[in-house]
Design goal:
This protein is an all-alpha fold. The chain has one domain. 71% of the residues lie in helices and 2% in strands. A two-stranded parallel ribbon has the order 1-2. It is globular.
Length: 240
């Protein structure tokens, strides 16, 4: 079975996708230079990227929520607290992803990985031997990995010494973690882990399901990026 990319991709996700690479650069710059301006811009950029599909609808409610959240970020920046907000962003992202993957595993729902396969490779691909089962298992894998990543990041935020949240509140850390190690994992190691998991899974899938053809990695990434809002909402990819 050959790969056929979606015929009507949405433009907004692909147009904003390159900016995702800017966020970790700004976040890391804020940590290394201790200038909260970088942290503020990183948080504002991430908020805009996450809300881009809603903002594109031009409805007043998303724009109001976006403006009020930016105002709250500005208040935190003026009071020197935006750094803590930035530290919580990776935890929130991983929790959100774990919830998105996990929610799709409910009875009567299509696993999120199965939606990806349907959107990129067609509904017929799910009928191939082993594909639907693997899609459910892989959805479980990403659910558990994202939840574990969120837990590790939360522990590092709380227990880093010096500079952890518990230490800042005058509470002794039950699991002291050197601040340098904690920062290295939060701003580098966590991204490396997810990238490594993605690459290793891609290689394993091509071996495990070697009886079928597979799209190339860049085709897979572009296909998912073009339709991720519909996939997350559980809409039929063929209807877009």
């Amino acid at each position: 079975m050959s790969f056929h990319p979606p015929t009507h991709p949405r433009r907004t996700p692909r147009r904003w996708l390159p900016l995702l690479c800017v966020y970790p650069v700004l976040a890391l710059a804020g940590v290394l230079t201790h200038r909260q301006e970088f942290s503020l811009v990183a948080c504002a950029l991430l908020l805009t990227l996450l809300m881009a599909p809603a903002l594109a609808s031009r409805r007043p409610l998303p724009w109001t929520a976006w403006a009020l959240t930016l105002a709250a970020m500005g208040w935190l920046w003026r009071h020197g607290m935006v750094g803590w907000l930035l530290e919580c962003v990776p935890i929130a992202i991983n929790l959100l992803l774990a919830m998105l993957f996990g929610r799709s595993l409910r009875a009567g729902s299509m696993p999120l990985i199965a939606r990806f396969i349907e959107a990129v490779e067609g509904r017929e691909r799910l009928q191939a031997p082993g594909v639907a089962t693997y899609a459910r298992q892989l959805t479980w894998f990403w659910t558990l990995l994202m939840a574990a990543q969120a837990s590790v990041l939360a522990i590092l935020l709380l227990c880093a010494e010096p500079g952890g949240l518990l230490g800042s509140l005058g509470i002794a850390s039950p699991w002291p973690v050197p601040a340098g190690l904690a920062q290295a994992y939060v701003h580098v190691g966590g991204y490396v882990l997810i990238a490594a998991a993605f690459l290793l899974e891609h290689a394993f899938r091509r071996w495990h399901l070697r009886h079928i053809t597979h799209p190339r990695m860049h085709e897979l990434a572009l296909g998912i990026a073009a339709r991720w809002p519909q996939l997350v909402r559980g809409e039929d990819p063929a209807s877009s």
